[in-house]
Amino acid sequence: MKKLVALVLTLVCALGLVGCGTTLKNKDEVVSGDLPPILIMREQHFIAYDMPISELPDDLECMGEITEEEANGTGLQGCKYYANKYLSSFDEFYVYQECGTPVDKNTVDSTKRQWAYVKWVREGLERE
After folding, report:
1. What CA–CA distance (Å, rounded) separates 96 from 118?
2. Alpha-carbon distance 4 to 84, whole Å?
3. Dist CA 25 CA 128 (whole Å)
4. CA-based angle 18:108:37, to the nearest 5?
5. How far apart are CA 12 and CA 118, in angstroms?
6. Between vectors from CA 22 to CA 41 and to CA 104, what angle results, nearest 5°?
7. Spatial separation of the C-alpha atoms in residues 104 and 115, rounded to whole Å
8. For 48-77, how does the pLDDT look when each residue is reduced to its tens digit (9 = 90+)?
9. Which of 2, 73, 77, 86 has the fewest CB atoms below 10 angstroms from its CB?
10. What is the pLDDT of residues 79-96, one digit of tens each?
11. H or E element at residue 120
């Protein structure tokens, strides 16, 4: 079930991520339409993992804004990200971003855009 949710969210993010800033692709950028969007934070790869939520869990704080390099072509540069700064590991965080609207437990309607918090999880942890 977790794999199905991860797949659905990955597809929704791949089709619907519009980010916080607009960027133009230059001729040297690789277009990877078949791959899920990946953020690169602290030299680790992160993928969107769960349904968007409207409110953050209480233990999270704003850790800054995503840089162009960290955004990795997703268009999320300038979006704020939130994590638990008291944890010694950096395995997951939330990004306040434009995304599709959940219509049930496992489905997002990418034609109905909203701003919400999307959970990003370190690559490999989404399979556990």
Report:
1. 6
2. 27
3. 34
4. 40
5. 12
6. 70
7. 17
8. 988 899 999 999 999 999 999 999 999 999
9. 86
10. 999 999 888 888 999 999
11. strand 107-122
